[in-house]
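User: Please fill in residues for this 475-position structure.
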């Protein structure tokens, strides 16, 4: 039809710009390894911050007792308690509760926010259950805090700034663990924070509890991040004399990686249209709250952006190629109207006339489409999700090969597990497939069967509680 005549070359160009053939993947993996090394050498040495987590005792399975986890990372707030029974009994029971942070507390004072968190924790702890702490022993908490902090020990970290729509006054520059401990003291709650971690680190700890071969954890949700188990003597910026057997978890903050990424005009336009061009959005709720970085890994692979990039490409095809006929659907011009779950819903369509694609387009953007235009929409979605999944896979190989370069056989010579979590990975089957395909392409066949990429379902909650246990103040 006349539509495909005009749009076909645009689609071809898009596919060329997004192409991730083996040399592109290899270059991304190699740059990831090199940037990791540079970031481990000296603070500020690379786009990758290579942040020390201070988690240097990993869960072994021997942990016993009642521990708590608390997760603050967005509008949702989660508390969990877990009874650990050691090697034989493992996780005896878990209970958890989730609630949203009241809007007014997101711009309250630091005391008000932490008092609220403390009282939620108190209510939750008082609900009893079948297990109790031994007399005289405080409840210990693993605190997953997914905002930028400058960590100074396993149980302290200075908040650099609030993000994700939080504008709480008086916390920046303070130790968030002290803020919570003080709030608990004010209320006479007999609990304390034993470990402060981010969600990738908590996921790694949670997965490692079940499987000693877990070396890497990757979060692919609204944003993205990765961390891995590193030898302390391979971290020059630690400037100590460590035995090679001592290990710690290093947080890459890999969203800021940016070397060799295949980009399109739509990526650049999206970036330029953001309030602070050239920077990383750190908010899914408030797009005007941005932290400095640049056109980066996070914008090409994470869930926050895939829908928006596709929307921009479709908008262009509608305007310049009459993708949806003579008129351009007005609603399609609204930034972020098309979301990543919409792309995924469309790609699961198995009907002959692509009914789901049609109804998603209509419901989301009031677009009337015919079979031809629906097919093109699917091609556009697939182009971006393929690029994203494959680049994420290349990033993972970059981490694995860095460890392997240091100690031959450490990764590829044995079974190695990469623990994955996050809504994008969990719910987008095409994304998962492209990611795994890229990993397989980059690794020689004899060793690729040693690399296991595994979804760690909700490992982060238990992971944080486990880190409270391994870093317990008792014993
Ligand atoms: P977080 O916001 O903390 O990252 P999640 O790990 O649950 O929380 O990830 C949520 C993100 O996952 C969403 O922003 C979206 O990008 C992506 N997502 C959610 N559902 C789907 C889906 N059905 N298909 C594809 N991506 C999805």
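Assistant: Residues filled in for all 475 positions:
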């Amino acid at each position: 039809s006349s539509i495909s005549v005009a749009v076909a070359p645009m689609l071809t160009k898009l596919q060329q710009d997004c192409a991730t053939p083996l040399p592109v993947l290899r270059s991304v993996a190699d740059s990831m390894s090199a940037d990791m090394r540079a970031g481990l050498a000296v603070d500020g040495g690379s786009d990758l911050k290579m942040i020390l987590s201070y988690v240097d005792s990993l869960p072994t399975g021997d942990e016993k007792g009642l521990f708590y986890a608390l997760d603050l990372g967005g509008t949702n707030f989660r508390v969990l308690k877990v009874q650990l029974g050691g090697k034989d009994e493992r996780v005896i029971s878990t209970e958890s509760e989730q609630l949203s942070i009241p809007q007014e507390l997101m711009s309250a004072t630091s005391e008000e926010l932490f008092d609220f968190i403390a009282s939620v924790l108190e209510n939750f702890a008082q609900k009893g259950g079948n297990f109790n702490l031994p007399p005289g022993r405080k409840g210990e908490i693993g605190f997953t805090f997914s905002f930028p902090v400058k960590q100074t020990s396993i149980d302290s970290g200075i908040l650099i700034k609030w993000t994700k729509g939080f504008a709480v006054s008086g916390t920046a520059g303070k130790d968030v663990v002290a803020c919570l401990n003080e709030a608990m003291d004010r209320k006479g709650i007999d609990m304390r924070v034993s470990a402060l971690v981010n969600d990738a680190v908590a996921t790694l700890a949670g997965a490692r509890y079940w499987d000693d071969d877990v070396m890497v954890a990757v979060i692919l949700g609204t944003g993205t991040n990765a961390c891995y188990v590193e030898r302390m003597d391979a971290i020059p910026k630690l400037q100590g004399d460590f035995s090679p057997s001592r290990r710690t978890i290093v947080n890459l903050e890999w969203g800021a990686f940016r070397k060799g990424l295949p980009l399109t005009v739509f990526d650049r336009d999206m970036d330029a249209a953001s309030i602070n061009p050239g920077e990383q959005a750190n908010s899914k709720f408030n797009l005007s709250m941005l932290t400095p970085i640049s056109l980066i890994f996070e914008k090409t692979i994470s869930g926050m952006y895939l829908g928006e990039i596709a929307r921009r490409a479709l908008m262009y095809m509608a305007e310049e190629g009459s993708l949806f006929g003579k008129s351009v659907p007005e609603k399609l011009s609204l930034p972020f109207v098309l979301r990543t779950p919409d792309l995924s819903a469309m790609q699961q369509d198995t009907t002959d006339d692509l009914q789901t694609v049609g109804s998603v387009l209509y419901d989301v953007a009031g677009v009337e489409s015919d079979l031809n235009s629906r097919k093109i929409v699917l091609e556009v979605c697939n182009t971006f999700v393929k690029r994203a999944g494959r680049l994420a896979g290349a990033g993972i190989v970059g981490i694995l090969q860095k460890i392997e370069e240091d100690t031959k056989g450490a990764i590829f010579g044995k079974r190695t597990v990469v623990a994955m979590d996050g809504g994008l990975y969990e719910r987008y089957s095409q994304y998962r497939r492209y990611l795994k395909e890229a990993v397989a392409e980059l690794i020689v066949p004899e060793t690729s069967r040693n690399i296991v990429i595994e979804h760690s379902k909700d490992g982060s909650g238990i992971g944080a509680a486990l880190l409270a246990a391994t870093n317990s103040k008792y014993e």
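For context: The pocket of adenosine-5'-diphosphate is lined by residues 73-74, 221-223, 284, 303-304, 340-341, 344, 422-424, 427-428 (CB under 6 Å).
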